[in-house]
Amino acid sequence: MQERYERVYSAAARMLTEHAPAAGRAHWPQERRRRWSELEMLLTALPRTTLPGTADPAWQLVSAVDEDGRPVGIADAVRAWEQRITAAPPPAPGTIVAMPGLWHTLAGGLLRELTGRLAPGRPAVTVGAAGGELSAVAAQFAAALRTAVTGAPHPPRPRPSLRGPQPLATGLPMPAAADRLEAAARLAAAATPSPRELAGGTDFSVRFDAADAAAQLLGGLYRSAGPDWRERAEGLRPAEHLVSFVRFDGDVPRPVGLAEHAAGVRDHVRDLRGPWRPGPDDPVPRWSPQRAWVVLPDVVATVTADLLDELAVRLRPGRQVGTVRFDTEPLGQFVQRRLLDAAIRDWTEGDR
Predict the structure, then answer these.
(1) Which of 65, 217, 240, 291 could pair covalently with 11 via S-S, beta carbons 3.0-4.6 A apart?
(2) 6's torsion region: left (phi>0), alpha (psi -120 to 50) or beta?
(3) Which ranges of 203-257 does DSSP label H, i.e. alpha helix?
(4) Does this model's pTM top 0.85?
């Protein structure tokens, strides 16, 4: 019963996340909005069993604690990062970090891997030995950003102890809780247009991926084991492969190994200049078709380093993470729509 509960939770969380943010539901029929809201309430209202100084990687940071040494929820961390960026003064000389555009693109790819691994509903995983190489790459990128901001890499930050995967149904009255979740998931998915209906109609208020996830959820509810979590490519195993990116051999996608990607990133940055603090004697070069440059405000560079540290710790071989809770949903929106968009791509000293 617990395994089926987690499968339904995963499929429901994926459906809701594919149509984030909730503001995009404003023009939906009232019935659909109500069903989705009821389902979201169930996904976010799970009991939390906590231990002093011990973090649950399914919804809390693994790379840092707060000032009092307590674990930090990922949603709380996102709010804090957002506030730091919002409160920061406008970027000015002496408060920016520059880097080649390709370096920033590679860092962005690492951030997307983090958000992919923290996608709400992602099933439990134990990272294999291949994660060590990419973990080291993420740590190197974080250290390079911090060195550019402060002149030296920061000393290691205190980290929480980590608990093993916790069943989502812990503390819930079973089987009543499972029946309630399945009923809510079925009603929310049934109130969503199917991919075929979207293709043949004029309703553009539902994203196709959300409609596809709803159809998979409905189909999975008829199986005894419950719905399956679908990866980007057949044979993709998060213990060994990227979850955010695949390569194509012709028309067929194939998984990319964690160590394979780490080697590719190292090859790309081998001849690239790393992040640096621009100044009168070392300004940001003017853009050219052959070389693009990116500038980040110090606060954005520091927050990016925090997130790269989080990925580095999560990819260490043997790291265990249970089914990811819906609490992590704000992270993907923050990285994609706030952090990566904060890059300044047209900075030159003469313009400021």
Answers:
(1) 217
(2) alpha
(3) 208-220
(4) yes
